[in-house]
Amino acid sequence: MILELRAEVESTTLLPEEFNFSFEHKDVLLIPKRNKDGRDVVAEISIRKRIPDDAGFRTEVRPRTSAREPAHISIVGDERIGKELIRDLQFIESLLSLYGVTRVFWDFAKHSFIPETDAEKRNLQVHSISRTKQYLPIYYNLETDRMNETITKLRELTVPLAFFREGNKSFLSLNYIAAFQNFYFILEGYYAKGSHKNQETIFLSSTELLRQARAAYFPLQQIADKLNPMFKFYKLTPSPESFLRLVVKVRHRLHHYFRGEKQETYFGTPLLQEMYQPISLALMILCTYVLFAKRDSLLAK
């Protein structure tokens, strides 16, 4: 049986026709497509590897038992090959960045299972699987009845809200590390007292920030299971105060990268965006509380 991963590519890499190459017993195909400028550029990539016969590979479908329960698809067998091909796509994405590739959507690659015998065909109830991820739009009511009386009072929020807007945009684009950094600038701007040192101590000395952290901590319990691994990594016991400590520690680590470290995962490379989704979401929630409090304070003047 052959496992194929096929992913879309974002690039300005010129390629007049399909191009095949092989490495480490894997076959790669680069597929061009004409873009809006009339240029043939790399738009898709396929990578294939034969699954060993002893991997016990098969796919199964468990039908849903009620209208509310979705059907369940399971892949049985050695998961290492799929993970290996993902790493290979990441490698090719990085390598081809020298030639105009800006993104290989390896995290949304279509997995296809290609049988080579009748026995393998019988083991497949599902022949391909793909996934997508996007956030549903949230619609807001504009407070038009108060606009005339409030707009001039809120001008000083221009820059903090610009960071908030950029953070939201990055978050919705699944660029969670950039989102986190933009949200962090809001806290730094308001509470760091102009210093880039000892921010953990400075943040914890702010009565106002602690109040907002305690208010935000309740909704954060909905994602506690996703945040707990980071608390554990930094040896923190979850609490509003520890959440502020965690935010500072994560920000510090995101500003550095030391290759070969045992805990390299927590340096937040471009390949680990998903890992930072929970902490980015948590900081977004805290910044929402902070900004609304700042707005209310300005309107009360």
Report what the structure shows:
The structure is a single chain. By secondary structure, the chain is α+β, with helices and mostly antiparallel strands. The protein has two domains: 2-129, no CATH class; 144-299, no CATH class. It is 42% helix and 19% strand. It has ten helices and nine strands. The protein has helices at 80-96, 118-122, 147-150, 158-172, 176-191, 199-204, 207-220, 224-233, 240-254, 277-299, and strands at residues 2-11, 19-23, 26-34, 40-50, 58-62, 72-76, 101-104, 110-114, 128-129. Strands 1, 2, 3, 4, 7, 8 and 9 form a seven-stranded antiparallel sheet that branches. Strands 5-6 form a two-stranded antiparallel sheet. Strand 3 (26-34) and strand 4 (40-50) form a beta hairpin. The N and C termini lie far apart (71 Å). The model has no long low-confidence stretch (mean pLDDT 90).
Write the SSE topology.
Layout: E1 2-11, E2 19-23, E3 26-34, E4 40-50, E5 58-62, E6 72-76, H1 80-96, E7 101-104, E8 110-114, H2 118-122, E9 128-129, H3 147-150, H4 158-172, H5 176-191, H6 199-204, H7 207-220, H8 224-233, H9 240-254, H10 277-299
Antiparallel strand pairs: 1-4, 1-7, 1-8, 2-3, 3-4, 5-6, 8-9
Helix pairs in contact: 4-5, 4-10, 5-9, 5-10, 7-9, 7-10
